[in-house]
Design brief:
The protein has about 70 residues and is an alpha/beta fold. Helix content is about 45%, strand content about 15%. The chain starts with a helix and ends with a helix.
Length: about 70
């Protein structure tokens, strides 16, 4: 709900938002808000669990995240 409010507050299209997280719940929240999702593997979640959530991107290092954003 917080992500949906933030998207609405800034007046952007949800599909133009990249929600980045390190847990399956983050990926679920991003998808639920209509955003693209990126799962980072250097946080709390395990890579195989994150992959099962089917994020738009699985990111294994910060340099790759930079490439996706820019």
């Amino acid at each position: 709900e917080g992500l949906i409010r933030m998207i609405s507050h800034f007046g952007v299209e949800p599909k133009s938002v990249l929600y980045i997280g390190d847990m399956v719940a983050d990926i679920d929240a991003g998808r639920g808000a209509g955003a693209m999702t990126a799962a980072v593997t250097w946080g709390a979640g395990k890579k195989d669990e994150l992959a099962s959530a089917r994020p738009d991107f699985i990111v294994e290092n910060p340099d790759r995240l930079r490439e996706i954003i820019f």
